[in-house]
Amino acid sequence: MAMKLILQPYSDHSVSENVIYEMTKSFYSIVESRDLMSAQLIQAALLIALYELGHGLYPAAYLSIGHCARLCYAIGLHDQKGALSMLPKYFTWTEHVGISVQSIWS
Hints:
This protein is mostly helical. It has helices spanning 2-6, 19-33, 39-54, 58-74, 93-97, 101-105.
């Protein structure tokens, strides 16, 4: 939905009349309230913020961009080596089976 929203051309109609914007914001709020924290959620939030910025909704865009920054901080994107994260650490296949990448290539 956020991708469809960002692809909409600018129109002279007020943003409050834009049904897709309202639906996207509502759906985003529902997904976020269910504690489904993911990179896709942050991507959707960034697309919504870009839409707001591009359509001159500066108070909403300002708040949305700040919210995106807080989400990134919450999942540990600011310090991938030492930060505690809400998401589990992803391992590569070689780490999963206990093979060192260096031992494969030597």
